[in-house]
Amino acid sequence: MAVDYTTHDGVAVITLNNPPVNGLGLSTRAGIVEGIERAQNDPAIKAIVLTGAGKAFSGGADITEFNTPKATQEPTLATVIKTVESSAKPVVAAIHSVAMGGGLELALGAHYRIAAPGAQIALPEVKLGILPGAGGTQRLPRAIGLEAALNMIVSGAPVPSEKLADSGLFDAVVDGDLAAAALAFARKVGAQQGPHPKVRDRKIEHPNAAGFIQFARNSVAAIAKNFPAPLKCIDAVEAGVQNGFDKGLAFERECFIALVQTPESRALRHAFFGERAASKIPDVPGDTPVRDIKQVAVIGAGTMGGGIAMNFINAGIPVTLLETKQEALERGLATIRKNYEATVRKGKLKPEALEERMALITPTLSYDDLKNADLIVEAVFEELGVKDQVFRRLDEVAKPGAILASNTSTLDVDKIAAFTKRPQDVVGMHFFSPANVMKLLEVVRGKETAKDVLATVMKLAKKIKKTAVVSGVCDGFIGNRMIEQYIRQALFMLEEGALPAQVDKAIEKFGFAMGPFRMSDLAGNDIGWAIRKRRYQEHPDMHYSKIADRLCEMGRFGQKTGGGWYDYKAGDRTAYPSPVVDDMIGAFSKETNAQRRKIGDEEIVERLVFALVNEGAKILEEGIASKASDIDMVYLTGYGFPLYRGGPMLYADTVGLYNVERAIRRYASRPNGDAWRLARSIAELAAQGRGFNG
Fold first, then answer.
1. N or C terminus: which one in the chain shows less Cβ crowding within 10 Å?
2. Any catalytic annotation for residue 442?
3. What is the pTM of this model?
4. Residue 317 half-sphere exposure toward CB, CA atoms < 13 A
């Protein structure tokens, strides 16, 4: 049963019991209505307590029912709240742990509310591109005031219950036994003559409501220009202020229905579910036993190694940090400390916490000190010969059952595993720079990687607050394999008539955090050069523009050399268009007999994004990624793809694969068209009128 019904000396207790967060699925909603009606029909019952079992009052909608008929089947949440609110016998909501979304809206429908301290109170719907659809925009301002309510609704951020103790939301915030306090409170109000108070009957008090709403609208418009939901939240609250509760409620519902249909909401919901789906591996059951990770070792104290170490010590896991030379070790430790000091200055970390974290690092120059590590992550130079030396040494010193992970971004994990006598214990853990900031972790599964190793790493990723996505073994895995095709198109467009600033501006207007040329300058153009040199040997038949090689031959490696595709000034990371580079591009086009032409922004965006989509489709066909949403999560969390577009594969679905296929065929017939080999699945899905996501 999703709802339990018990009686205690004249009080009926309706307990939501739908783990893990008492989601308001159909059976839960029906159980609440049945419980209220049962209590109404029992003369011995004088009051009703509504609460939640386990770790939540209610986390809101049951996400397992999203996009199914059950989500909108009666009794809907609005019906449930109306039933609670219209009860002749007083309903007391006893709130603990979590009351979010529909859970908070349900509590607002009760006549009284008492709460335990520390309960997280929120209306987070805006994070899914929608707004509270069961009265949240109408009741919360009446409960806690216009300003506080608008801040909560527009941000979606949780607020601890004790911070709302003096608002009109709670009748009491009680320490100790919440259940006993709720029963006592219910008996008291049950003895009182009705009718009992309803939040809907309160007035929204504010000295200048219209002025504050306009201020809020101006503030939100500046920061949420690509997301319609925050402004719609303000519109719904305003409707309640101007037109009263019932008209405000009707307008809220209209806004909710409209927002659910927007591509932005679809994108945000896709990202929400995609993050949860990424942790599920088709052939690795959820109950697979995991290895205990109490000690971690990191090899390499450079930028990547130091950042990787910080992830573990942030989670309270001790790290042994290995370097080959004392000065490199000291430099790495100093950088870690400097990073934490910057966080302290921002007020996000207490000085004593800094020292606690630094104390979790054991620096060493000896591989012998890694013998007790449960997980060892190497972050050494990206060259197979170097990895060979490291993994053969690890095979000698690591204890049996230790997980040996490589932070490689492109190299063959199966070859790395073969350097050991324990390939089942080897896995790729590809962190993204800066590793202590970026959310993405590509978990690369070798052909012999054990299932419990995968399960362990995926669980550990959650602990260190990463979004982990599993990739099979191929050159570049998911993210870098796709970005190579994106960069190829960017370079071809320089040959054909575009300039770096135009390409970057077009894709940044589309929503990318950074265009391909600013990104290359930041990462270092010499890194891409090294990869291309390897490509020329391994894939001599693949056509690359040599224009980026010409730039590197000029010594322009990016920000670190003061010049790359752009010019940079000392202490200034602003990318200034470079006349020298523009002249070089023009001269290169002449040398190669490329006909320069005007390239529009629409073409720039299509070629860059559809290059990602086409390669992503091939990755799915080969089983390198198990689902399209995994690819989208890689690009949303690691490559700056705009969140409101949902990732390259969802964006392709939004545009329509019929249109994607036509565009790719069109570009394949033009200069440099040999870079376009249409993925089989795009044509097949387009013919069926389907998308990557169903």
1. C
2. no
3. 0.90
4. 23
